[in-house]
């Protein structure tokens, strides 16, 4: 009831605000009116001394921009440490909450830069048009750009701020051989405002929707590189209009328990930001609810080691029957395995295709536990998994041998530890492929998922061999996790150099006398001292 009233109120205010040309100032249907009032009062109290309230609820610069909770946190951090703003933790929370809901991004506007919020390590850089990668993607990821919405006039002010704060910017490699300032101060703000405008239909629609209630029972599955696939159930309860508690009863594919719990705040109606424990580790959760609140996806990562984490995919246990995943996702011919089919509403008999016999051992809210026998002559390739009337393709593969190993990521950066700064580790996994002959003798590489392998490192080139990078840069354990050495001058190295390194990470899988080998490139470099929420 409460929500309906507030959305009526916000519709009225939105209409007035559009007339004023300040559509952002209106409280969104996202938040209860009292919360919106407290947020507005906090911005008036702590920001308006410098950001003039030019119309009711409209603050110079602040109201001409939309971004994520992380984006707001970063700007306000700068207001604190450069411009002398002081806020208590509570005031900060109130302001971030308010601005994220009143001036946030719609789900479709998050998509391009989501990898940065999820802190995915070694993620390929975002591809943006014009000369944006050279102009704006040298010092930080382009996600910072793609997660901001403002008019050309504000983009120009942001560029002015960059040049004021970082005057060396124009002389850096990448800038000095082009007319950086000329481009940045003329055409670029206009292009940026076209790509990332303040006003959008997506946001206008989204901001007037009351947030979905995410409470309930959820089927979860995911993959943690180096640790494996996991699955189970999440029990989510709502503790206030924007807060949730969750309890996780999960297992790794091998059956080992992987339980946890968390407390989360949901911003902008869909941005789940949780803190809790998973498998005994402290973790952060950066998840996104789908527009109808029926699915939650994202990534969790270890507190203090955001490079280590896993994917998360959850759907409600109620809803149309669905096959979501199979663990393990690859079965070798001539073997008997315990297999879990993750999904909901899975009734009826199981069919994994010719040459595979399965028996249901147990039915669980998250799916079925099967005993599966793959005949020695079963055909290799992807299999369609059928349970009763529903099916899933490409979720399961049969193989005879592993033809190729691909180490992922193919290129990674690890960073030395130093003093109070934790090292940045690098997690690798070896993805197996088997070749299958398809129609017209076309060879199809069938992805088998992460395979157990033996891990080792080698020098990347002659220079790295001469410097003995393998000895100094760190160690690779048998889970494919590279643990970098300590930073700082090392008297044992030539010229007391830092423990940086240029390495190959090698995965080897032996069957009898045959070996399949995969390689990735790893750079072990110096610390990064500034680690903002959007890298
Ligand atoms: C003491 C003066 C002062 C106060 C108080 C202040 N700001 Fe700012 N703010 C500035 C200045 C100066 C700039 C322009 C330079 C810059 O961007 O750092 C700025 C720029 C901004 C921008 C635009 C820049 C961008 O990158 O998005 C936003 C948004 C902003 N401030 C938000 C806030 C919020 C929210 C508060 C209240 C918590 C606040 N400011 C309080 C001085 C202030
Ligand atoms: C010389 C390195 C450098 C280049 C080049 C650069 N940036 Fe930045 N940018 C930074 C740094 C450093 C910050 C963080 C400033 C802070 O919050 O203290 C930043 C912050 C930002 C932010 C977040 C602002 C905020 O208030 O939190 C955006 C958006 C952004 N940059 C966009 C751009 C765009 C657009 C370009 C190209 C025109 C660009 N950057 C080029 C260094 C750079």
Classified by CATH, the class of the largest domain is Mainly Beta
**Taking Cα atoms only, what radius of gyration do you get, to the nearest Å?**
26 Å
What form results from the Cα inertia axes? Answer: globular
Attached small molecules = heme C
**Residue-averaged pLDDT:** 92
Q: How helix-rich are the residues, as a percent range?
A: 10-25%
Widest sheet: strand ordering: 5-6-7-8-9-10-11-12
What portion of residues belong to β-strands?
Answer: 35-45%
Distance between the termini: 40 Å
Q: Segments where pLDDT lies below 50 for 5+ residues?
A: 1-25
Tell me the count of domains. 4
CATH fold node name of the largest domain: Immunoglobulin-like
Largest sheet: 8 strands, antiparallel, barrel
Helices and strands: which structural class?
A: alpha+beta
- Give the second-level CATH assignment, the architecture of the largest domain: Sandwich
Q: Supply the number of helical segments.
A: 14
Would you write up a description of this structure?
- By secondary structure, the protein is α+β, with helices and mostly antiparallel strands.
- It folds into four domains: 1-105, no CATH class; 216-316, Lipocalin; 325-399, Immunoglobulins (Immunoglobulin-like, Sandwich); 404-525, Immunoglobulins (Immunoglobulin-like, Sandwich), CATH 2.60.40.10.
- Strands 5-6-7-8-9-10-11-12 form an eight-stranded antiparallel barrel. It has a four-stranded antiparallel sheet with strand order 13-15-18-17, with no helix packed on it.
- The longest helix has 19 residues, at 2-20.
- It starts with a helix and ends in a 10-residue tail after the last strand.
